[in-house]
Structure formats: structure tokens, C-alpha cells
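Forwarding these from the shared drive since the link keeps breaking.
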Amino acid sequence: MHTIPLPGCSPTPLAAYLKALGILRVLSQQCPDAQAKGYWRGNAFTLVSTYDREALLNFFLTHYAPSSVVAPWNGGSGFMDGNDEPMISAILKSEADRFEHYRAVVQATYNAMNDLGLTATAQEIRSAQEKRKTAKKTKGKIPKEEYEEQVKECDKRVNSAKAVFQDAKVKLLLRCRNTFPENALEWLDAAYVLTDDGAKYPPLLGTGGNDGNFDFTYNFMLRLSEVFDLAKGVPTSDSPAFLCNALFDTPTKNLADNPIGQFSPSASGGANATTGFDAKSAVNPWDFILALEGAMLFAAAAVKRLESLSPGQLVYPFCVQPSGAGYGSATQSDENAARCEIWVPLWSAPSGLDEIKSLFSEGRAWVGKRTVKNGIDFALAVSSLGVDRGIGEFQRYGFHVRNGLAYFATPLQRLRVHRDTVSSDLLAACDGWLQRFLPKAKGDTAPGSVRRAAARLEAAIFARAVSAQDNNPDTAQELLIALGECERTLSRASEKWRADSFLKPLPPLPRGWIKATDNHTAEYRLAAALASLSVRFKKEFYPLRRHLEPVKVIAGEKAWTDWLDKSDPARNEVVWHEGSVIDVLCAMMKRRLLLAKSAGESSWPEYARLTAWPTDIAAFIDGRIDETRFAQLLWGLSLVDFSGDAMTGDEMPTPPSRIYDETPSAFYAQLKLCFASRLPDDKRVPIEPIIFNLAASGDGARASTQALRRLHGSSIPVTSIQIPLAGEAARRSASALLFPLWDTQLAAVGRAVAPDFFPQLNLR
């Protein structure tokens, strides 16, 4: 067995990928003794067979028999314009053995057309076109009106005859499927599928073998004429060099200015295709020939889904609806104008043709218990091992309008199949919400802020899927922030639009998000501690999320959320606004003080699953954190369900490396002891809102005086020193009171003003 790398067959462009499939398909079908297998290694396809390099080249040059590729139903196929098109005639008259099957299919095509009475129609088209050419020669020699009348009459005859072809198109497709030789069926299955609703066309081959005015089948014949003498079947003088270039990427010359369609955008020429302003196309004929041979492995099928009432649905291997996300130039217009997306598989184990056929015919991608619908779903399926075959990677292609109105198979990105807990488990918990939200967020009536948030979410999903590291907290954190941004914009959107779109708040997320998104920053630890705050006043549950948006949350095993009615008094709990984080936290603190007073709480109620570290609080008070990032994280982490059992050490964020080396100011310590839920010796400090209100207004001196008076009145042995802090520093200290602290953390803070009150705690 020989192992031959084929650097000319790479995952991109699509023509090079299809070329690899074509080589494996042709060699396996026409030379079974070669025992051909293939796999992908890096950026090249590797062929394993009994053929060495020279034998492989010799096979394609002297023994290869091209597949019988015809499309008589298309206007540019050569059949609709009569029976004397040069390429078709050359193949029909050829005596070469390699074109034997091709000749049989061409003859079967003419028989099918004759049976349907279309031969005379084709001749009518040819006759009218010839007459039009003759009429054009008389331009300027006869009166203008007479000339225009002749041309108009010819065009009328052509259009009338072509209309007859269109009316009989489905009948012709069916006749071809029923009467063509067995060797032509692979092409027909790849070109179209007949359903109860008529003919359906797979996207890879355009609309039945043509893309606009570009007919794949006739160009296939033209490219064959460039590498073979059609009459004798021998290779042309340039054919060996072209073949080496196609397989081994060796330099070559004499490439012609020929079209290649959507398969290889870089070879199509056009603006910015070279060092000058534009360039002509430069196409290797073997590239096009082998690419079309490989495209036949993408055979479509029509299936009847049990839950669907439609007669049938076209199913194409690894083909989904387009998603305008995941690449640098992604826009919503790409998604609207794109034809589809194809995620072509790259496998790393040597596989034969039967295995590859099975992969393309049976391979399915799943998200949870449903099949994928679009590019976003496919990215999630790839990162959750939702593909039921042994595939190592996927190369994503989008069929986008990139050259005028022409579609190009644009390479987008390459994703490795790997198990990702965030995508497969954590994000899957809100899959139902995503399926409702994303389509509505892209609708014409959706607010611009919601559209932008949805685009950021899709980009974050792709970024996470591309990341090869399952434990990468940065991509997981960006995904959580994107979810929080969607929820924030949704909560501020029109209530009528939300109701008309049937959009509910995002349901509580699994607790696993906490550890998955921990990137060991002060912003993250502070946001996580604050988001875990929850308390019950008069048997009513008050998570921090209720201060961010008008939502009612029922946490626990059957967690659910819903929007608050306009008349619900609980809407007064929402204090979030797009402004200073300090103002927002102060507003939250004021609201909790009112709730505590109305509930008759004797001391400050502070319940949290996670707590803040004094070092991080000091950084917050000093303004040494990224407050924008902190706000984004707060929204994302507020969506997490912190209810249930107590959190274990494995679930909690990693503490700072130097836990107690830095503590907040003595001013903060005075205030925090007045708003602490637990103190040594079961001491209690009654709630005194005036202390917070003075500090929040910037009057730190009076706040300090009031705090000392309250602490002394509660028998807390604090150092009696008034701290005349004022302005922004006082306000930041007041807002930081909302961060919860554990006993040892409170002791580390309190020792600054009451060293004799916390002597027994070991703070190391």
C-alpha cells in the first residue's frame, strides 16, 4: 500500500475539497484493485492505495472514464438548442472507450426528448436563433422598423419554444430518471430530487446543474476537451502538467480564462484578484472535472418527517440554513441573501468509498434531541459531539452573493469536533428560549438593540465553538455576557413587541456557569458575589435579578420566569438604569433597606451563596476595576439559579492570590459593621438607613459620626475616630456595602476599627 499526500486537495476552496472526494470516488469505482482509502491530515487529503504516484497519474491520463454528466432541462446544456452542439456531437461521435458510457447517456437523452416531443422544440429554438443571427447582419441595411420586427419575431419564437421546455421540465426529469443507464443515476441524484411538490434542487449544484447562466454539464464537456482528444480519448499535451498541478499543487502554466462557478472564488478573477485592479480567471480543467466528480457524493433525498404535514422535505448532507455570524465580515444581509451553508466533514482515519457514502447519506447533526436547523445549531452540535460519525473537524462554507449577483462558496471557518460542557450542557438548558428568541430578534419589527444583542450572542456561540479548549473561561464568559445583554435589551424592549413575539425572560441558568466562566479577575468575583444575593421578605423571594428587570423568578428544580404585569407593585423593585454603576448599586441598597424595614427586620439581612473578598472590595472603592465589564458580568451572572444545595468548593470562583494583604478603608469598615448580618457574640446592629443615605450623598463625615454612635449603642467596641471622608470616595464606599462578606472576610475588614472585637479569628 502507498500513502500519497495530495496537497492540491485541501479543505478550502470547495473545489479542492470536492476534488479529493472525486479522486477517491473515481478510483474506487473504476479500479477496485487499487483498494483506495483516504483521510485528511492537516490541510491536505491523503490517499492510501496500491497505486504509487506514477500509477495514479497514469490511471487518470489513460484509463479514467468521465461520469455521464448531462442536463437537457437547462437552457445552456447544449440540448435545448438543437442536436448539433459541438461538444455533445464530439462525444457522440467519439470512438474512445473512455466515453462509451457518456455516449450511451447522450443517446438516452435524445431518446427521452424525442419521446416527449421536445426534439422538434429544440430544433425550433435553433432555427429561430440562426434566423436572428442572419437578421442582425442586415442591421443598417434595411429600415430600422423592419429590422426590429424581425429580431422581435425571432425572440418570440425562442421564448415560446423555451416555454414548452419549461412546461415539460418535470416530465423530462422523470423520464431521465426512469430511462437513463445505471451509471448516470449518481449524477441525477445529486442534481435534483423529485417530490410530490415538484422538483427540488440541492444547493451544491445550483438549480439542477446550473448556476444562473453557468451550466455545469456543458462546461464539464468543455473542460474534458482541454485534457483529452474527444475523438481518440488520448490526453492532450498539457494534460499531464494540469493533472500534477491539480493533485500535487506543482507549478504549471497555460491555464485558460475559463469559468469555474461557485466552487473556487479565488480562481474566478475579478476585482482585487491580483496586484493590479482586476484579473482574469485562471482555471485548471482537471480541478473542475474532479470537483464535479466529487460533488456526486452529495446526493440529496426527500424524506417525510413524522411531525410534518408537508408531502416531503429536501434533506442534503450537512446542509443547513445560513447564519450571519462567526466570521469577520458577518452581517444580517449575508444571512438574508445567502443560499445555504454546508459544513463539510474532515475525517482523520483512512476510509473507503462505502464508508464515505454512508457518512454523507446517513450523517446527521443534533442539538439535544432535535436536528440542527442553521449554522448556530451546527456550531453547537460540533462542540457537543452531536455528530454520529467519526469526524475530526468540519469546514464551514456559506453560499453568499459576493460577485454581483453570483453566488460563491465562501470558506468561513474550521471547527474541531470536541466535547464542550458549556455548549453541550450549560447552553443546552436554554435551547428552547434560544429557538424562540433568535428568529424574533432578527425580524423586521425587532428593536435595533435586540438585533445587536442577538448578533453578539451568535458571535459568542461561534467563538466558543471554535475554541479548542473546553476550560477556556474567556469564551465562556463572553457567551454568558452575551446572554445577559440579550436579556437586558429584551427587558427594555416594547412590551407590545415582546407580547406579539411571545418572548419570555430567559429561564434561570445552571449553576455550572459559575465555575466555567471564572477567569480569576476582581470584576468577575465581585459580580458573582453580588449576583448570588437573595433574601426572602415576608415569604417572597428577592434575588438580585428583580432589581435589574421587571421579572418574577421562581427558582429551584422547576425554575421559571415571567414578566411582571404593568400594575404589579413589584415593578418598583427595578432600579437598573444605563448610567453609573455606583448610582445603580446605591439604588439597590436603598431599595433593600426599604424592603428590610417594611418586613420588620431588626438587623441587616444578608444571604448569599458567594461572598466578596476584601481585596476586591478595596479595588472597587478605589476605582481600580473595569466597571463596564463588571456591569456586563452582573447581568449575565444574575441569570444563574443559585438556589438549591449549598455550593461546594469546586463550584466557587477561585479566590485572589493575596487574600488579606489589602483591605478596604476604615471608613468602609465603620459602615459595614452597621450592615453586617452576623457579628461575634451574636451582636446585632439595628438597621439605620441614615448612615447609608449620608454616605451615598457624599457626606462621609456625618455618616461616620452616625455609624460610631450606632456601633457604640450596640456595644461594639470600635475605635472612636470620626473619618471625614467626602465626595466620590464616600459614595463608592456606600455602594460597596451591598457586597456580602463571610465571617472571616468581615473580620479582616472590621479589625481596622475594632481590633479587640475580632481577636480569635485566624485570618491567614
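-- next protein --
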Amino acid sequence: MGHGAFLVNRQNLLDDLTDSLRSEHDFTADGGGILRNRVIQAALNMDPCLLDLLMQSEVIRAHFFVEVAGTLIFDKVKFRDFISNKTFLPDSYTAFKNRISLADDQGSHLGHSRDVVLTWPYKDCILEGGMTKEDRGRNEVFWNTALSPDDITRLFEPKVLTGWERWSTAPEKMGGVIRQSVGDVHEDDNLLIKGNNLLALYSLKSRYARKVKLIYIDPPYNTGNDGFLYNDRFSHASWLTFMRNRLEIARDFLSEDGLIVVHIDDNEQAYLKVLMDGIFGRENFVGDLIRKTKSTTNDAKTGFNIQHENTLIYAKDKSKISLIGRKKTFDSYKNPDNDPSGAWASDNPSARSGDYYFPIKNPYTGRIDYPPENSHWRFSERRLQDYIDSGKIVFRKEHSENQRGFIFKRYRSEIRSEYNLLGSLEGVDNRHMNQKATKERNKLFGEVEFAYPKPESFAELIIRASTKPGDIVLDFFAGSGTTAAVAHKMGRKWIAVEQMDYIQELTKNRIKKVIEGEQGGISKEVGWEGGGSFVYAELAASNSVFADRIGSAKNISTLLSIKIDMRKTGFLRYDVDIDAFDEDEFANLSLGDAKHVLMDCLDTNHLYVNLNSLGDGYFPVSDQDSAINRAFYGISE
């Protein structure tokens, strides 16, 4: 049977099924619409009324019933999938999209093929919107495109990089930073990349695989309020797929003793934990740092005051890592009484739990001390005398009414490590709250439209505990550049990727200010005075130019002009017939639906210029950019 016959039969099926269902009052709404969910429930329950209705149409009977041993068997799964598909009872967007798409040999439109949408295939969010939770409140959209493995032909090939710039400390007499030309990118260069982070990771893999000590990211939280929107209704599954794609390739960057640290909140924390268990191995889960974000929330509906975020930590190989906190200070340890055991500091002699509860009498003043309420001594009554004899416990000859009658010494020699262990509740005080980060941002840039950056102090905590100077830190959700700024101040090498245009005004300018020696954030704490350099580059745009134009279009007429340019110079999907584009019907779509239609026409394999297109006259890549790319990727002429 030819392709046209399939379409004719399919249209007959749609018409017959619609008419049959509308003839039954139980399956129709007051306005004449079909109650899709009620029909599906009836099918799954093998409702006799529905089965009798369907059997009356020869076309319906032939499509959804199978004869077995002389008996017709209802294929309820096939019927459910057909009813659930937007091809049945389509909205205006789907109807228009179907008109310009091709169908497979079963009469199903390729854009709705079940093996693409429902089985967790490779997906990529081809995005116009922001890439981090910090874009919350901005009206920006992630364009989500479902791609099956067969559809991916050029998507993950390395991309051409263009717009190369090197920013470094200016000569002493000039001051500030200067922009220089780029001849080559060295191993110790810091790197800031503009472009889709999934494609950037695949482009950087050959150069940096197994070399990154720390991946530190703050991805979209999928709260419904953070600008992370989708074309389909499976927002949770889409977010998980979006994250899975990036985490899988990110793992390849980690050194054998490397770590990945991911910020997330309660909305997706549990699901992200399971996802990362699968990618990095449950046995490589290191811990979950809790960070206090604010003092109160505005969720009056639940009355539940959520003040924290989670920070999931995984290792490439848990047996090869250790996390330590900040180096301890021992300034309070003195030896004023020439104790032979060395320098000491007064310590708390009580503990919350234990079995030791007895009075201790000061022989000089007669004061009697007990452990505080609900507490116990940290030593037994027999050990008490040993401590008195050795000088670890010293009775005061004079003391105020509120002072304990004795001093319990902790010796410097008793401290085994010069570092504090990193604790899961490391950020539950007010040191790392969002308010602090906002003040840091405002000091650098004034009031800007960029909510909820992370404070430098928390990034410093993570970077200090997991890396040493010279190690590479990667952040592929760079946002305002907190990770890169802190890594730079701490003498680490860094790679940062950001999609949004604010990379110019925020991210890049922030790192330039760091090089100049800005004194915000952790600068004074780490003794930062400026210096260093970084290289900036962009993924060379192809179809992404059209994606940007579509996203910023204000009306249908602008979209129609973009459609003309797309036909001339764009790369369109193989399953789209642009000649079937009816401009009058297109003009009746909402602006949002019209944008989705044009986005669906673009071949996402061609968002950016592939490296193997160097020398292809179709793409205007300069000789200088070609030379830098060959050197960067290590390919010969």
C-alpha cells in the first residue's frame, strides 16, 4: 500500500473514531468535546459500551481488533496510545506541525513516534533561555527537542570555536586588563566558552578528558519558576534527561581522584540523587552538604519554612579522594603556666551524652560544679584524679560566680589533624546565604537582573576541600561566574561554559575585574591582589542564529521573514516539507506556537559549525580561526 493510502485510511480512522465517540453521551462534554481520559479509562477497563461502539465501524474494527481463533480481541494498548497522541484531537500548533511533517510507513507522524518520545532517548534542550536557577523570573524558554539515536548524526561532533580573545593583566604603567590576540591556547590557560553546554562539553572532551579535578555546577532547579520551560508536558522527565545527558559526558572529564559537586533544592534533589547513583555509582556517593539560603520563605500555603539547599557530592572513585575543610588556627593555644605537655587552650569538659554525672569540688574556693542540664562529664570519676595529677585539670584559686571552678585543658599535641573535616552541615549558619551573594554581585555590577547567585565563600569551601593550586575546575553552568572567579583567586585553573548573552556583561566582565584585583568576596581572605589571564571563545553559530532570532521575535510577520531566511541558508529537518507551509494558517497561530513550529523545522544537528567543516566555503571561518582551532584540537593541516 502506498504512502498516500496510509494517510487516507488514517484520516478515515480519525473521522470515524471522532464521530463514534461523540455519539455516546458518557464520552462527551457539554460543549461537544470528547472526554479523552474517560475514553482511555473505559478502554483499559474493557468497558462493554465502548467495545460495542467501536465494533460498529469497519475501519475502527480493522485497526484496533485482532482475530485470534475466530474471535476478535481488542488491542487496548494500541487504542490508548492512539487516543493519547496529539494527532487525535490536535491543538492548532500540532495540527499545523503535522501538516508540514512527513509520516512513517505506519502512518504515524515522525514527530510523535513513540520510540522517540516515551523511551528516554537521547534528548537535548536546544535553548534560548537561561541555564541556571539564577535566571529565575526572566521570561526565557528552553526549546526542548527530542532526538532518537538515529537522529543524531552531527550533533556531538566537535564544533568550530570563534571570537577568540585573551584577557590578561596590563603592563604596570597602564593598569587594568588588556585584550590580546590569540595564537594558541596553552595547557595552563583558563577558558571561558559561550554556547550550548552539552555541545561544548563534547567539543572539549578530547582536550580535557580525565584531567579535571573538580566539576562544580549549579544547574536549573526545575521549580516551575526558574525559566526552565518545555515544549511537552513531561517537564520532570525532560529535566532528568537534560541532566543525564550532561552528567554522562561530564564524568569523562574527571580525573580518577576527581569529584563532581551539584547544587539542587528539594524539588528535584531525591531524583537527582538516584540519577547520579546510576551514572557515578551509588558506592561513589560522598555526601550532601546543606547550605542555608535564607531566613524565611514566602510559602504561606504549606506553612513549611524551607531555608536550605542541597549540594550532592560524588567521586569518580571514592577510594581515591579525601575531603578536608579549612586549616585550623591555633592562636588561642598558649602555655602561661609552663605546662610540660605544651601549649593548651581551655576546653568544654561536658558532653550531651554519657554516663558520668558527679560533683567536682574546688579545694580552694569550695565551689561545687555539676555538668550542665541534660549533659554529662567527658571523663569518669576515677579519670578525674588522673587529670588533676597530670595538670590537665587545674582548679582556679579565684573565679567569678559564673565561672566553672576548674579549667579543662586541651593540648595542641592532642589535635591529630591541622584541618577540619568537611561536614554535611557546613553551611547551615548565615555565612553562605543568598543575601551575601547578592551583596557581592551588587558591589561588582550594581543592581542587575540576575537573581540568586552563590556566595564566593561557599564555592571557596568546596574548591579548597577538593583541589590544590594548579588543578582544573570545570563549571558548565557558569551563570555570573562565581566558580571561575573563586578558582582564579585560589590559583586553580578553570573552564567555564555559559549559553546566555549575559556572559559578556556579567561573566566575562567579572573575571576581568578579578584579574584587575577586585577586593569583593573572598579576596581579602585569600590575599588576592590580581593577575592571571583567560581565553574567551564562542561556538561558531549556524542554526543557532535562527534559534536566537525566533526567540526574540515580537510578531508573526517577523517570524515569516525568518522562515524565508531559514529556507535560503538554514539547515532544515529531513522530515519537514517547507513547501507545505501555509502562511495564512501560520498567521492564526499564537506567537508562542508559531515560534515552536519554526524551531521544530530546524535540524538541531546543525546548531553550530562542526569542526570537519573547516575549509568548507559554506561557512565563513577565517584563516586565523581555522589555525587556532587546528592547534586547539591538535589536528594537522
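The two ends are 52 Å apart (CA to CA). The first strand starts at residue 65 and ends at 68.

- D.
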